[in-house]
Amino acid sequence: MAPKLYWILASPPARAVVLCAKQLGIELDLIEVDLLNKEQFKPEFLKMNPLHTVPVLDDDGFIVSDSHAIMTYLVSNYRKGSSLYPEDVKQRSLVDQRLYFDSGTLFANHIRVCIPILYKGAKTISPDLLTALTEAYGVLEEYLQNSNYVAGDDLTIADFSIWTTITNSSAYLPAEEDKYPHIASWLKRMEETPNNDLNKSGGDFIRNVFKSILS
């Protein structure tokens, strides 16, 4: 039985898990959650994830929430030894640090922009929020100065997390090549990976939503 993943295409963390699973050759049973109609607040969903967020993985009754935890679980449980989450302690620590950067800084700043726009009726983005996200872009640019991917010269799960976040945040704050040449080169590299169309579809959806609200 394939593990069930509760997700939506527009969510960067949810897309990251699907991209990771596809890269690993793991089949998932994808179950869409209607966030706008508040399905995430139904008792059966809250029982799985009291934080009422996607993605959530149900692997034969074993529940894992948070995309970063789900991806490390998928590699460790199904594809141990994969370079997507290397077993070498130092390499893995670097991947973990980039995952924490996404969770605590990059995605955190992105979601602070999204919540007022998508759920609270805001029509403009606070300059302070854009400043914080711009600073996060600057950190990512530094990370990529001497490597092909965010945690070294090999593709890892950290790339999926950060790639999907940047894809969505580019809807209102593009990572311009003249300001962020290393990010731009990395994005082109990521677009050459399998399943780029999946990530692009999610990003295009968010871009159209922001365009309709902010125009």
From TrEMBL:
Segments forming domain GST N-terminal: 1-82
Species name: Leptinotarsa decemlineata (Colorado potato beetle)
Domain of life: Eukaryota
The UniProt record lists the keyword Endoplasmic reticulum: no
GO biological process, one term: glutathione metabolic process
Pfam families: GST_C (PF00043), GST_N_3 (PF13417)
Protein name: Putative glutathione S-transferase epsilon class member 3
Subunit and partners: Homodimer.
Entry-linked PANTHER family: GLUTATHIONE S TRANSFERASE D10, ISOFORM A-RELATED (PTHR43969:SF9)
GST C-terminal domain sequence ranges: 88-210
GO molecular function term, any single one: glutathione transferase activity
Entries under SUPFAM superfamilies matching the protein: GST C-terminal domain-like (SSF47616), Thioredoxin-like (SSF52833)
Swiss-Prot/TrEMBL keywords: Transferase
